[in-house]
Write a structure and sequence with these properties.
By secondary structure, the protein is an alpha+beta fold. The protein has four helices and six strands; from the N terminus they run H-H-H-E-E-H-E-E-E-E. A six-stranded mixed β-sheet has the order 2-1-6-5-4-3, with helices on one face. The longest helix has 14 residues. A hairpin with a 5-residue loop joins strand 1 and strand 2.
């Protein structure tokens, strides 16, 4: 997908998702039956999808904390460097594949809140579920009433970079499907 249509799609999706930073998003990211939306790790010809019992990559939590700390300081380009290319993101939207560094920077720029990691837990398929306390951050956007709220994201880290960034509802255990997207 060319960068301009993707940029419009990302911005539209984030607008629909209420800027995607509030932790009290009700049913965002849930199916009609109330279960969390599926999260599917990306598989390549060289790399199979991790098994449901696989553990996160060593150092994954450090990458997630470094990304959050860098974005919270307002360094969008630095935060974007923690993402692999391509990367899949979903902030209360259908999954979007980011194929260029500019698309990853746009995604990070559109997150209006900074965030501090307050908890992590291992999840199936090598994902880490991070719980964030939302903060204001320098740059565009305002966290506003979201400041102090929590948000949860399932992240998959491979080779020291975030390959999947998938918002999950607060308090819900995500259902991780091993079928490649």
């Amino acid at each position: 997908m060319p960068a301009r249509p993707l940029a419009c799609a990302v911005l539209a999706a984030l607008a629909v998702a209420g800027a995607g930073c509030l932790g009290d998003d009700g049913d965002q990211g849930e199916r009609a039956d109330g279960a969390p939306a599926e999260m599917r790790p990306r598989a390549t010809a060289e790399e199979p999808v991790p098994s449901p019992v696989s553990r996160p990559e060593p150092g994954a939590e450090d990458v997630i904390r470094a990304w959050a700390d860098t974005l919270r300081r307002g360094d969008v380009a630095g935060a974007s460097a923690y993402f692999a290319l391509p990367a899949t993101v979903s902030n209360g939207t259908p999954p979007i594949e980011l194929e260029t560094r500019a698309e990853v920077e746009l995604f990070n720029r559109t997150l209006p809140c900074g965030a501090r990691v307050i908890a992590t837990e291992d999840a199936p398929h090598g994902f880490v579920i991070a719980t964030f306390r939302l903060t204001e951050r320098p740059g565009r956007g305002r966290c506003g009433s979201g400041t102090g709220a929590t948000a949860r994201t399932a992240l998959l880290v491979r080779d020291g970079h975030i390959t999947d960034w998938l918002r999950v509802p607060d308090g819900a255990a995500p259902e991780l499907d091993a079928t490649p997207a």
